[in-house]
Automatic annotation (TrEMBL):
Species of the source: Caenorhabditis angaria
Keyword Magnesium attached: yes
Residues noted as binding Mg(2+) in the record, renumbered to the chain: 509, 511, 1077, 1081
Chain segments annotated as transmembrane: 147-165, 380-402, 444-466, 1135-1155, 1167-1188, 1209-1233, 1245-1266, 1278-1301, 1321-1342
Gene3D superfamilies assigned to the protein according to its UniProt record, in alphabetical order: Calcium-transporting ATPase, cytoplasmic domain N, Calcium-transporting ATPase, cytoplasmic transduction domain A, Calcium-transporting ATPase, transmembrane domain, HAD superfamily/HAD-like
GO-annotated biological processes: phospholipid translocation
Family designation: Belongs to the cation transport ATPase (P-type) (TC 3.A.3) family. Type IV subfamily.
Reaction catalyzed: ATP + H2O + phospholipidSide 1 = ADP + phosphate + phospholipidSide 2; a beta-D-glucosyl-(1<->1')-N-acylsphing-4-enine(out) + ATP + H2O = a beta-D-glucosyl-(1<->1')-N-acylsphing-4-enine(in) + ADP + phosphate + H(+)
Biased segments, Low complexity type: 28-41
UniProt name for this protein: Phospholipid-transporting ATPase
Composition bias, Polar residues: 9-27, 666-678
P-type ATPase N-terminal domain segment(s): 115-168
Length: 1404
């Protein structure tokens, strides 16, 4: 085969085409341009990657009629559909706009500007907001949407006119803020650009019509109508229509986690029109040049679950049957998905670039505003009001003060007005005329400029940096790190970190959120008999018992071997094994293995009625770098030369795949029993195709290069007589085996068991649990294809094959799924297998079954078992079946196909009606019970949240009994809690029930003084919730919710979950946190104030829609009780500090106006005034907002009730800080006034002392707020003061009278050095600090001593306990030292006594 492709390539002489645009002739024949040179560097790449290939543009003198016609059609469609102009066209029908796609497979394609697909979007994407040319204007335009930025720009313009400050000095604050924000936006946009560039430069293989082969091409050059070849694990570059798959049935699997977050595999099917290329018996070679159809489909939409289209034959093309023209969503592969479990797929591009569904759904996260942000905006308005009041007062007193000199304004020395009689008078110099009214008006605007600092411009930038720091510290918390999946907390919304500290309601999903979502089969009920109540899980005794009941010792050993392999696989993967009832397994082993046997039928439904994918082998890329498929599974070229390989005696289990094994063993049996007609009808016959011994390393029937050795060797060892002579080559065969199956055969006697391991992948954990349980009991799903399914029976060592006629998938409305199969042997009956919730299956049972004694008893017992399982917290499903006659099936099939071919909007309704018609008259087989264990730490987490005053609501789709049991085990409900159940139907009955519950609560409230909500929990059914939120019952329902501590809503749909979140936000006026892990929780997460997504077993869609993402529910304790508490405390204190700091500076400047005639003159250097808040006092508040803690994390976890013990940011908090700012500003100004009273100091010296006092007082004020001192916090405050003093010395030392840009009339030269050398300066500084901070210090000491809050009490108690603990440890240590040293002291005493005695004797 390799030589064939080489000869084809040499014959075609592949080169990259080069298009020339130098002449009109070249434009019209650019596909036949010069081929004189061969570009060796682009070997294997598409011609569009060549720098010389440029799509020719439209000629200048090209006829514009076609353009006008297209514009007119689009304009007419818009006018007809627009609600304003719709009346002009009467009842004229509006035809939906459709996209007609012509394939790009012509050897001489039309010109680019004449191509039918020219108007469609190309595949290059760009998610950036800016370009090099548009960055500055567009970014400025976006930043001007902030009112504060507009305000400060207005101040700059005003100062340019009035000149209160230096014209350039006033630009510094707003330029700093805009510059920092622009840098941040540019960095984020650059990251998006790099991501887009990486995506656009990704490569895939695209059909080059001129070369008649696939060649590599960058994604950005792909056009609508191109043919794309993708291999295993390759990302899909555009929305393509699936034409061909490496699977013999045209099936492929994709992972859509990049699109909708679901990590499970989805099955896609090649279009029916290409079925001839997937024919198993007579496969045809495929080439994109043979696709002679147009694709007519809908315009691009963002609905990933919907697609409508059809095929149309091109001119002179072959006609298509109507059923082959219909296209559905199962035929489309969406951009961003990943090809899985498939060697390769090929398709035609339908939507490219920004028209793909992935890009249309890429709207970014929804913006949420926190309550603290709203309160901050309100207080900013109050700051504006204070500013206007001061400006009006200053303007009024300016006019009043000037009128005192109205008698002689031109003779007053400090007034610079010019008399009209003066020779210097100029009519244009209005400002030099004495006009108190004009001066008052002029002074108002001057005050606006001078006192602009009242609005904290640096607050917005500071808050953003603080939130970034808080998010970083949250993500680094080891207590919220889950090492099993290596996931930390992720923050996807920076603007609501402080909202975590104000949560009042937690709305949680159950499955996968509170539980593990790792389903394990535990119990079942078959035909009314319960199994699994008393089982010894994972017992070797059970294995021996079942093995002893098998028919032969050989089968027993093989069964035990497979059971041991299952145990080993479970140990490797960490999954729990299903529970096995030995009695049930024995009955299954002795059953008739027929659908008529209820036990066998029960396990057959468990094994087949699902969408589980069986993974059996690795996949590889079958296309080389030059675009040639090296191994085609659809045929062996006649001139292929086989190669030789070494023989091996490797065991057959390690060599063959599952299907190969079945075929091989069937071949053995057929070879041994060919003389028996009975056996030939009963089992499949496998004929060995002609193959030479040298071709053992050739292609296997899957089109892969054979890497497993020893296949021919094994065949030679087993069938030496059969393989004694080399086989002659058979044209068109690609596999060493050719299946010739007798249509009457349905099962094959497999003496050799299949491979011990099968790996399953499922969209639902429930389905996976059922399939694994069926495998554990001996009914193993072995292989699944589009139109057939194979199960292996461990007990009889045989396989059964069923033809799959239809699959009716699960949906939220029906709450069940079905599979229609046909037997391949015997009666060949059509059987409907259905599984679903009990509420969805029991109403669909047939009347004959319900009225029969056996059926009546089965239903009654099953309902009892359902209740029992639910009380144990197990998830239940009902399994059922229906056997159809051939006439019933054919009648239903015809109507179902008519519904599928429906092209109107009623298509979905018609299909649903057809499905409901099929899922009727069922026969109940039994009930399954699956365990979904609680996650570790869930009960403790919920209990901590409840102690913190947070009400937890659990919203689930499970049955009431199951949900209530989980609620008790998770401590949502306590044993002493009285449950209120709302189970009536109808508006009036629900209203009466609500009244009854409220009266009961009222009676208890009268008796007990304790909070009544601690006594009650509410159980709500999703079916009755619509009556509860009816306007007639809404008020009473809300009152009942307020009186209940916990709420459990069962059978809730995603819409109902979102409605409850909306109810809690708007009617209960609480802050809501919603947490979930699945796609059904997205609406609830997006509607809550804070949305948390868990990266669980149901994909990542909840994470993608959330504000915060984490791995386990128990992390919610740390997220709320610690980080939420800290974030709110830090940010609220920081915001209040900013308001205080800016207001104090403004008040100091305002007090100075009393002594300068309210002339808006500022004593502080304009440079200091403009950068004081942006530079000098910016770093410590930032660190304070990131690091400060009012209590340690351990104390907050041990005492959850401290969650709300925060200094709440309320309306009076702002005014308390304003009063403090007024007091401190008065102290600063009047101490300075007293220091320089009756002195010769100038204005700059006076102002320098003012700004130094402000700097020290603000810094020490922040020190009083700090409750958790750290080295970064201390050094930031110390270095800020040090840097301020150094800058003062440098600035005043270098400034000269030539520095006119500051706008100062008298440059403050050497002011700092002179002030620092005076004793009065430092004395005034110390006195000011004491006077300013004494009131706050006294209040804090008295409050924390006499009336400490609970946080301070816990801290004091903790410190005392720590000291007592250290003292006890010290005493214990001293005691141990004394005990150990006692013997030595005794010896020493005795020895010293003897020594003294001897000394006394010696003396005597």
């Amino acid at each position: 085969m390799r030589k064939t492709h080489q000869r084809q390539q040499n014959h075609q002489n592949p080169v990259d085409l080069e298009a020339s645009t130098s002449s009109t002739a070249d434009q019209t024949t650019y596909t036949n341009s010069s081929r004189s040179t061969t570009d060796s560097t682009s070997k294997g790449h598409h011609r569009r990657t060549s720098s010389l290939w440029v799509p020719p543009s439209r000629p200048i003198f090209h006829s514009p009629s076609q353009v006008f016609r297209e514009k007119a059609e689009n304009g007419g469609r818009i006018l007809k559909s627009h609600p304003v102009t719709r009346w002009m066209f009467g009842n004229v029908p509006i035809l939906p706009k459709q996209r007609v796609i012509s394939p790009n497979n012509q050897k001489e394609p039309p010109l680019r500007y004449e191509h039918p697909n020219r108007k469609y979007c190309r595949n290059r994407i760009s998610t950036t907001k800016y370009s090099l040319l548009t960055f500055i204007p567009k970014n400025l335009f976006e930043q001007l949407h902030r009112v504060a930025n507009l305000y400060f720009i207005f101040i700059v313009i005003l100062n340019m006119i009035i000149g209160a400050f230096g014209k350039y000095i006033s630009v510094m604050p707003i330029a700093f803020v805009l510059g920092i924000t622009a840098i941040k936006d540019a960095f984020e946009d650059y990251r998006r650009y790099k991501s887009d560039r990486k995506i656009n430069h990704s490569t895939c293989r695209v059909w080059d019509a001129s070369q008649q082969r696939y060649r590599k091409l960058e994604w950005q050059h792909i056009l609508v109508g191109d043919f794309v070849h993708l291999s295993h694990d390759e990302i899909i570059p555009a929305d393509i229509l699936l034409l061909r798959s490496s699977d013999l049935n045209g099936v492929c699997y994709v992972e859509t986690s990049n699109l909708d977050g679901e990590s499970n595999l989805k099955q896609r099917q090649a279009i029916r029109a290409m079925g001839k290329y997937h024919n198993i018996n007579v496969p045809l070679e495929y080439s994109p040049s043979e696709f002679n159809y147009k694709v007519v489909c809908e315009e691009p939409t963002n609905d990933v679950y919907k697609f409508e289209g059809r095929l149309e034959a091109m001119e002179n093309g072959p006609p298509l049957p109507r059923e082959f023209t219909i296209l559905a969503k199962e035929n489309v592969l969406l951009r961003g998905c990943v090809v899985k479990n498939t060697d390769f797929v090929e398709g035609i591009v339908l939507y490219a670039g920004n028209d793909t569904k992935a890009m249309l759904n890429n709207n970014g996260p929804r913006y949420k505003r926190s309550s603290l942000e709203k309160l901050t905006n309100r207080d900013i308005l109050w700051s504006v009001a204070i500013l206007l009041i001061m400006c009006i007062i200053g303007a009024i007193f300016c006019g009043v003060w000037l009128r005192n000199y109205s008698n002689s304004p031109y003779d007053t020395p400090f007034l610079v007005y010019v008399s009209r009689n003066s020779t210097y008078y100029n009519n244009h110099d209005r400002q030099y005329q004495f006009d108190p009214s004009f001066e008052s008006f002029y002074g108002f605007w001057s005050y606006i400029i001078v006192l602009q600092v009242m609005i904290p411009i640096s607050l917005y930038v500071s808050i953003e940096f603080i939130k970034i720091g808080q998010v970083w510290f949250m993500s680094q918390d080891r207590n919220m790190y889950y090492d099993k999946v290596d996931k930390r907390l992720q923050c996807r919304a920076l603007n609501i970190t402080e909202e975590l500290g104000q949560i009042q309601y937690v709305m949680s999903d159950k499955t996968g959120t509170l539980t593990e979502n790792q389903m394990v089969f535990r119990r079942c009920s078959v035909k009314g008999k319960d199994y699994g109540e008393n089982i010894n899980r994972h017992s070797s005794v059970a294995m021996e018992l079942v093995a002893s009941n098998l028919k032969s010792d050989e089968f027993a050993s093989k069964s035990k071997l497979q059971l041991a392999a299952l145990a080993q696989a479970a140990a490797n993967t960490g999954r729990l094994r299903p529970s096995r009832d030995t009695n049930l397994e024995t009955q299954l082993a002795e059953s008739e293995k027929s659908i008529d046997d209820p036990i066998f039928a029960f396990f057959l439904v468990m094994s087949i009625c699902n969408t589980v994918v069986v993974n059996a082998k690795p996949h590889e890329d079958l296309m080389d770098e030059e675009g040639a498929i090296t191994n085609s599974r659809f045929g062996i070229e006649q001139d292929q030369e086989p190669t030789e390989s070494t023989e091996s005696t490797e065991p057959l289990e390690n060599v063959l795949e599952e299907e190969d094994l079945i075929n091989l063993d069937s071949a053995e049996n057929s070879a041994d029993t060919r003389s028996s007609p009975k056996n030939s009808e009963e089992f499949e016959e496998i004929e060995l195709a002609d193959i030479s011994p040298e071709s053992k390393n050739g292609n296997n029937y899957n089109g892969e290069k054979e890497t497993r050795k020893g296949l021919a060797s094994i065949l030679t060892q087993r069938h030496s007589s059969i393989l004694s002579n080399p086989f002659s080559k058979l044209k068109g065969l690609k596999s060493p085996f050719r299946r010739s199956v007798d249509k009457r055969a349905s099962q094959s006697d497999v003496s050799q068991p299949p491979p011990l391991h099968s790996f399953y992948d499922s969209e639902s954990p429930d389905e996976l649990a059922l399939v694994e349980a069926a495998r554990e009991y001996g009914i193993r799903l072995l292989k699944r294809r589009f139109d057939d399914v194979v199960v292996y029976l461990r007990h009889s060592q045989k396989s059964l094959k069923f033809k799959v006629l239809h699959t009716l998938p699960f949906d939220a409305d029906r709450k069940r799924m079905s599979v229609i199969i046909r037997e391949n042997s015997g009666k060949k009956r059509v059987i409907l297998l259905t599984k679903g919730a009990d509420a969805a299956i029991l109403p669909c049972l047939s009347a004959d079954f319900l009225t029969s004694p056996e059926g009546e008893e089965c239903v009654l017992k099953s309902q009892e078992h359902l209740t029992e399982y639910a009380k144990q917290g197990l998830r239940t499903l009902c399994l059922s079946m229906r056997i159809w006659t051939e006439d019933e099936y054919q009648e239903w099939r015809e109507k179902h196909e008519e519904a599928e071919l429906e092209t109107t909007k009623m298509r979905e309704d018609a299909i649903l009606e057809s499905v409901l018609r099929a899922e009727s008259d069922l026969e109940l087989l039994g009930v399954t019970a699956i365990e979904d264990r609680l996650q570790d730490g869930v009960p403790e987490c919920i209990n901590s949240l409840r102690e913190a005053g947070i009400r937890v609501w659990v919203l689930t789709g499970d049955k009431i009994e199951t949900a209530v049991n989980i609620a008790y085990s998770s401590k949502l409900f306590s044993p002493n809690m009285d449950l209120l159940n709302i189970g009536a139907n109808g508006i009036a009955p629900i209203g009466d029930l609500l009244n009854e519950h409220l009266e009961r609560i009222g009676r208890i409230r009268e008796i007990e003084d304790e909070a009544v909500e601690n006594h009650f929990g509410l159980v709500l059914n999703g079916a009755t919730m619509g009556y509860c939120i009816d306007p007639h019952n809404l008020e009473r329902f809300v009152q009942l919710l307020k009186s209940c501590r916990s709420v459990l809503c069962c059978r809730a749909t995603p819409l109902q979950k979102a409605q409850l979140v909306h109810l809690a936000k708007n009617q209960l006026h609480g802050k809501v946190l919603a947490i979930g892990d699945g796609a059904n929780d997205v609406s609830m997460i997006q509607g809550a104030d804070v949305g948390v997504g868990l990266s669980g077993q149901e994909g990542m869609q909840a994470v993608m829609s959330s504000d915060f993402a984490m791995a386990r529910f128990r992390f919610l304790t740390n997220l709320l009780l610690i980080h939420g508490h800290w974030n709110y405390y830090r940010l609220s204190q920081t915001i209040l500090y900013f308001f205080y700091k800016n207001a104090m500076l403004v008040f100091v400047v305002f007090w100075y106006q009393i002594f300068n005639g309210f002339s808006a003159q500022v004593p502080i250097d304009p440079v200091y005034l403009m950068i004081y808040n942006l530079v000098f006092t910016s770093v410590p508040p930032l660190l304070f907002g990131c690091l400060d803690q009012d209590s340690s994390g351990d104390i907050l976890l041990k005492n959850p009730e401290l969650y709300r013990e925060i200094g709440q940011y309320s309306w009076w908090s702002f005014w308390v800080n304003m009063v403090d700012a007024v007091w401190q500003s008065l102290a600063v100004f009047w101490v300075t006034y007293a220091t320089y009273h009756n002195s010769t100091s100038d204005m700059w010296t006076f102002g320098h002392l003012l700004v130094c006092q402000l700097m020290f007082v603000n810094t020490f004020h922040l020190g009083l707020l700090i409750q958790y001192w750290t080295l970064p916090m201390f050094f930031s405050m110390f270095l800020s003061i040090l840097a301020f003093l150094a800058i003062c010395l440098l600035y005043n030392g270098f400034v000269t009278p030539n520095w006119t840009w500051t706008g100062a009339k008298d440059v403050p030269s050497m002011i700092a050095l002179t002030s620092f050398s005076q004793f009065d300066f430092w004395l005034a500084l110390i006195v000011t600090i004491v006077i300013c901070l004494a009131p706050r210090m006294i209040v804090l000491v008295v409050k924390n001593t006499i009336w400490p809050n609970r946080i301070m009490s816990k801290r004091i108690r903790g410190d005392r306990e720590e000291e007592l603990k250290k003292k006890k440890e010290k005493d214990f240590t001293n005691c141990l030292v004394q005990c150990f040293s006692a013997p030595f002291r005794c010896v020493r005493f005795i020895f010293s006594s003897k020594t003294r005695k001897n000394q006394n004797i010696h003396v005597q």
